[in-house]
Structure formats: C-alpha cells, structure tokens
C-alpha cells in the first residue's frame, strides 16, 4: 500500500504565493518521476510541472517563471512553490508519483487533490 497526502492549498489574492506539498508513504522501494497536474473549473486536467529522479524539471508554458517544483528524497516529498498567482491558476491540484513498490511493481499513484483559489 502506498499513500500520497497533499497539503498547502487554500485561498490567496492575485499576486500571492502558496506552497503545495505531497508526501508519499507506505511500501516504497524507490520513487522515480514526480509531478503536479491541475483541473481548472469546467476544464480538462492539465500537466503543471514534473521532476525526474535526477532532478530535471519541466513546466507548462503558463507557469514557467512563476512555479517551481522540487523534491526531498529523504522525506519522499514533492513540492510546488507557486508565486505571482493569477485567477487563472484556480484549480484542484493533484500530485502524482511513479513508485517502485517493495514488491517491485512500478505504478503511478495520485494524491487526493487540494483546492487552490486565487481571488480578491
């Protein structure tokens, strides 16, 4: 069993910042890629940012220069630092982790989602 638990969402004014966290626990042998998706209201899910096991990152054009993804391998945690937030960033944010379990299965696990609302 593997669990991903997200935290850090909330309501913020335009131009503000939030930091999302996603901690993995359970039968983990190793964690490979990590990332964040979001689903804006009434829209399809979109990829926000990814980080490889080696630390290489990639971002959606809409968040480049404003969002930063990072990982703490000792804590099995991925972060999303969001600065200069805009109303268009309002969405439910989901983390994922590509995990090799202790049983040597390679699976993608998902967090429960956390609401980010950018509004004045």
Mean pLDDT: 97
From the N-terminal CA to the C-terminal CA, the straight-line distance is: 41 Å
Low-confidence stretches: none
Report the portion of residues in β strands: over 45%
What class, by secondary structure content? mainly beta
Order of helices and strands: EEEEEEEEEEE
Q: State the assembly state of the protein chains.
A: single chain
Q: What's the alpha carbon Rg, rounded to whole Å?
A: 14 Å
Q: How does the major sheet shape up?
A: 7 strands, mixed
Q: What is the strand tally?
A: 11
Helix content: under 10%
Question: How many separate helices?
Answer: 0
Shape type:
elongated
Question: What features would you describe in this structure?
Answer:
By secondary structure, the chain is an all-beta fold. The chain contains no helices and eleven strands. The protein has strands at residues 2-7, 10-12, 18-26, 28-39, 46-51, 57-59, 67-72, 77-82, 91-101, 106-110, 114-118. Strands 2, 4, 5, 6, 9, 10 and 11 form a seven-stranded mixed sheet that branches. It is elongated and about 45 Å long.
């Amino acid at each position: 069993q593997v669990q991903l638990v997200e935290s850090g969402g909330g309501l913020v004014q335009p131009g503000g910042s939030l930091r999302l966290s996603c901690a993995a626990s359970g039968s983990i042998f190793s964690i490979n890629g990590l990332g964040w998706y979001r689903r804006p209201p009434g829209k399809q899910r979109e990829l926000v940012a990814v980080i490889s096991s080696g630390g290489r990152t990639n971002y959606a054009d809409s968040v480049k220069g404003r969002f930063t993804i990072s990982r703490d391998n000792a804590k099995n945690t991925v972060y999303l630092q969001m600065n200069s937030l805009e109303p268009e960033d309002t969405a439910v944010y989901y983390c994922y982790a590509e995990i090799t379990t202790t049983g040597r299965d390679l699976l993608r696990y998902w967090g429960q989602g956390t609401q980010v609302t950018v509004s004045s």
